[in-house]
Amino acid sequence: PTGSSYTGEELLALAEVLREHPNVVVLSDEIYEYIVFDGRHVSMLNVAPCMKDRFILVNGFSKGFAMTGWRLGYIAAPQSIAAGVGKIQSQETSAPSTISQKAGEAAYTMTEESARAVSKMLEAFRERRDYFVDALKNIPGVECFTPGGAFYAFPNIKTYLGRKTPDGTVIETSTDLCMYLLEHHGLAIVPGDAFGEPDGVRLSYSASMEMLREGIRRFEKGLLALEE
User: Fold this and answer.
1) pTM above 0.90, yes or no
2) φ, ψ for residue 200, nearest 5 deg
3) Beta pairing, strands 152-153 & 73-76
């Protein structure tokens, strides 16, 4: 969700630690499996199959196959856990429609046509990422790492914390900054406080290039309007 990702080596090292704690169950959300810009997605199960007896993989079709809103997903887990989840799910929600299930089946059969569609989408995201990150880095005082996957940038805006808005309000937190940008510049972004990174904010680059350029313009204008 922040654009960063674990390497296979990091996941293996984490699994080695977890092996010493047999009561810990790993819940891994791998929804961005197909939106990885360098190399391929790696699951802990790829590098540490010994964890499979206490590993719950959560995935779906919303991101990699652009099926947002179809509400179709799945888990892969040990039988005892899957059975328990199934009991709860059957009482909490109705089943996904047969239309979305068939669409999901077609997506995962990965015909040549569907593979091309996913590849085309990934290249579009890569183009937007490159533009977006470069534009953020060109804003004075903003630092931003290059995301390895998904479609979010997570710039560091620490320089602007403690500054004042034109009406004299002090921007003390990233949440304050996001509310200021929303109320005064019509820009909706997510505070880093929600992700345990109070010096950052999260911006999505899944929109069109036209909207991204406008978003960057508003973001920069809002930041530069703050007074030290």
Assistant:
1) no
2) -125, 170
3) unpaired
